[in-house]
Design brief:
The chain is an alpha/beta fold and 316 residues long. The protein has ten helices and 13 strands. It starts with a strand and ends with a helix.
């Protein structure tokens, strides 16, 4: 049985990845920070949990020495582009130092056969021009927020440790992924939560920011399947874009959710909700990964939106 370690196993994508790996016969362990987040795990009795801050170099080394996983999925990170404007240093230090501690531990322990997945982000492409759409792995980086810069650093650290230390590192750049359990810091979950609040009489008007940006949305369930395939079939040293290949205006996403709402909801733009830097469109070309693995998204966006809405309804 293959052993997998997921950093950030109780997070949004991490909890789904645990399910995906367990269903495919893996033994799973993972790191977490807060007790409340354990509620995200539907299979917590089958996951070996380690409460560890990856910024603690010794604790990270001891964990990897103890677990010696065959596969290591590094998901733990601060993940909000918007919040990164408020705490740019914290975002950068957290995301880069945590990964450095992991890679240094693997190097020092001589675990050259361990397969490591580094999660970068489509945010690295940033302010892309129309001519560069859809974005493939060679699209130039034009990061427009501190989070994106931290993800470029994570991405290239993975490449550097592959080149200089011959570690078996695969990198992926996922586009927006959505579903139940996602933080309301993110647009789809935020919309769904507020719609439910209005349904319950807590609010009267749906206040929104910029609705013209276009994003490539994929179900988190499809994305974590891609993470598994990336380590099973991906080539060390390579990087793969992961997304749906279709973009939606945020206004279209909101319209779909409003059609699923109970009753009519009034929408009003709030200037305070407009982001400082908002890339016009992110659209994924995932043909490189599809040709290697056969992967493509299976879950319709309407189902994911409905499931997210129902998740928030069940929280009340």
């Amino acid at each position: 049985m293959k052993k997998a370690l997921i950093t950030g196993v109780t997070g949004f994508a991490g909890s789904y990845l645990a399910d995906e790996l367990l269903e495919n016969g893996y033994e799973v362990s993972g790191t977490y920070l807060s007790e409340e987040s354990i509620a995200n795990l539907s299979n917590k009795d089958r996951v070996r949990l380690h409460k560890i801050d990856l910024l603690d170099e010794k604790a990270t080394f001891d964990l990897i020495e103890k677990e010696k996983p065959d596969y290591l999925f590094h998901l733990a990170a601060l993940t909000s582009p918007r919040a990164s404007f408020d705490n740019p240093k914290e975002t950068f230090v957290n995301n880069v130092s945590g990964e450095l501690n992991i890679l240094e531990a693997v190097k020092k322990l001589g675990l050259k056969d361990m397969r490591i997945l580094i999660i970068s982000s489509a945010e690295v492409y940033g302010a892309v021009s129309k001519e560069d759409l859809p974005m493939d792995e060679n699209t130039p980086f034009k990061p427009s927020n501190p989070y994106a810069v931290s993800k470029i650093a994570q991405d290239f650290l993975g490449l550097q440790y592959y080149l200089s230390e011959k570690l078996q590192i695969v990198r992926v750049r996922p586009f927006n992924h959505i579903g139940p359990r996602q933080s309301p810091q993110f647009v789809v979950s935020a919309f769904a939560k507020r719609i439910v609040g209005i349904e319950n009489g807590n609010e009267k008007v749906m206040k929104v920011g910029n609705l013209s940006s276009r994003r490539d949305f994929t179900s988190v369930i499809d994305i974590v399947k891609a993470y598994r395939l990336a380590l099973e079939k991906g080539e060390a040293g390579e990087v793969y874009n992961l997304g749906s290949g279709k973009s939606y205006a945020i206004s279209e996403i909101l319209d779909m959710l409003l059609k699923m709402a109970k009753g009519t909801i009034e929408v009003e733009q709030d200037p305070n909700l407009v982001k400082t830097a908002d890339d016009a469109e992110l659209l994924c070309d995932y043909s490189k990964f599809k040709s290697l693995t056969g992967w493509e998204p299976q879950i319709p966006i309407e189902k994911t939106l409905q499931d997210t809405l129902d998740y928030w309804r069940n929280q009340n």
